[in-house]
Amino acid sequence: MTAHSAPNAYASILSGLNNLLPGVKLALYMLHEGLPDETITAGRRLFDGRHSQIHFVDVSEWMQAYSPTHLETTDRKTFYRLAVPTLFAEFQRLVYLTDDILLRACPSLLYYSIPATAQIGATRDLLLIPAQTNGFRLPQAIAGAPPLIDYHRGALGVLDSNNYFQNGVLVFNLAQISSAQAEECGQLCNTLFWMNDQDILNRIFFGKVHFIHQNWNVCWGPGCVEASEALPAEWKKIYDEGLSNPFAVHFTGFPKPWTGWDGPYTEDFRRLIADVMRAFQ
Prior knowledge:
By secondary structure, this protein is α/β, with parallel strands linked by helices. About 35% of the residues lie in helices and about 15% in strands. It contains eleven helices and nine strands. The strands form three sheets. The protein has a four-stranded mixed beta sheet, with helices on one face. Helix 1 crosses helix 11 (about 265-275).
């Protein structure tokens, strides 16, 4: 999280707290690099209470150690999730959310959503499935612009593109992740991938993923409807069912709800941001 994205991140947390099941209390960990004191104070004002406690984890040392490159199409905080297996190695399990998620169900259900033998819980990247067969090729700078399936197989070792996962909502089963895998998360930050950290996670954890219910990461934003129309029938049904009753809405693409995009669930997120901003006053 950065100071700029803090209201969005706090809105995501607030959406989870608003859907807590009875008796659930959350331990919250915000990853950041040098947040201003006023941002931390606002977070504590919002989330230190009967139902949650917030902690701020500075990832600066990890970022300096691995120094992610190829930041032309992303920002630094995109790589923060790759630090999770190192920074939280003593934890048994951890749920990771990006700062553009609207939760509509209790996040504790995510914590228990994967078996003890899985290393990661995630949803399939449904809206990428049509790119397997529609002639889409990667940019020239990425391995000479191969077709998506060839890239997944050759660069990532993802032998079935249907099982390529989306990383907006992740359950890390840290007790099952090795120190070698944690180290690889950092080392690969300096390799040019198409989807950056998402490709890195798929490369490291392919075959060790438990696919959680698709409703936990319903991608919604500009172009999503058009992309869903190209889905094969069985995947289209899953996407449509998820959008009608999502457990978590992931506002992918640009613009975002807070920069002018309108659609189902966007007003819900804007209301949460308005509630959060009162804590900064």
